[in-house]
Amino acid sequence: SDARLWARRFAAEIAQLAACVGSVLSRVQEAKGESDSSSNHNNLAGPVDRSRTDNTTAVTVEIFYGSTCGHCLSFIHAAIYPLIQARLPGDQLQLTMLPWVPDLMNENECLGNLPCSYARAPLCALKSTFPQPVRIDSEDLHRGLDFLYCDLSNTAMGATPPQNAVELPKCANQAGCAEGADAFKLLNSSTYRQQIEAAKHKLNKLP
After folding, report:
1. How many helices (H) and strands (E) does the chain have?
2. What are phi and psi of 64, to 5 degrees?
3. SS3 assignment, position 103
4. Helix axes 161-175, 114-125, angle to 10 degrees
5. Residue 61, C-beta contacts closer than 8 angstroms, at least 6 positions apart
6. Are 101 and 183 in contact (CB under 8 A)?
7. What is the pTM of this model?
């Protein structure tokens, strides 16, 4: 189907990204090793000042998903989990993973809008990763992603709010996290809104 083809295409792109990052990291580490060896050989009078030589910048992957999006569920399964399982070093690869709620809403408006309402629980589960991006090897990220995937398995498959409320504790137990009372506040927090606005700005620049 189109959905599966879409997911496979993006999974292949993420796999290529992971391979590319791994290759770049290997080359950086080899270059650093050669540089350190050369520096130690030529600077016998004292230690090398590594604060001046180690200026490697981490690669950041940004993912904004819809809380009722079945394609997003396929994408996380086929692409994001394999990227995490590649065990790339967290100081070299970072991930932004957030639900997409582009418009600011009050609480009543959010409760009447399924994508917004369903974004509250996973956002709360990801709270410990704020501010993002976060290291790809972060345990907080892994727990939040497990909750997110479990929750999205319900909300993207047509679960009603009462049905989802029944499933939330199961997802929380599975991922080792739970929804807090301040979930709605997180949606309107400056930390979250700034990242959404930055992403919207990037999207507006696309042709």
Report:
1. 10, 3
2. -120, 120
3. coil
4. 10
5. 14, 17, 83, 93, 94, 95, 96, 133
6. no
7. 0.72
Would you tell me how many other CB atoms lie within 10 Å of the CB of residue 1?
Answer: 6
Q: Over the stretch 145-177, which tens digit does the pLDDT of each residue have?
A: 999 999 999 999 988 889 988 888 888 876 665
- 50/47 Cα distance (integer angstroms): 9
CB neighbours of 71 closer than 8 A, spacing ≥ 6?
Answer: 3, 6, 7
Six-digit token string for 180: 């807090």
Decide: residue 83, CB within 10 A, 0-12 exposed, 13-18 middle, 19+ buried: buried
pLDDT of 180 strictly over 60:
no
Single-letter amino acid code for the residue at 13: E
- Cβ atoms of 49 and 36 within 8 Å: the answer is no
DSSP string for 4-50: HHHHHHHHHHHHHHHHHHHHHHHHHHHHHHHHHHHHHHH-TTS---H
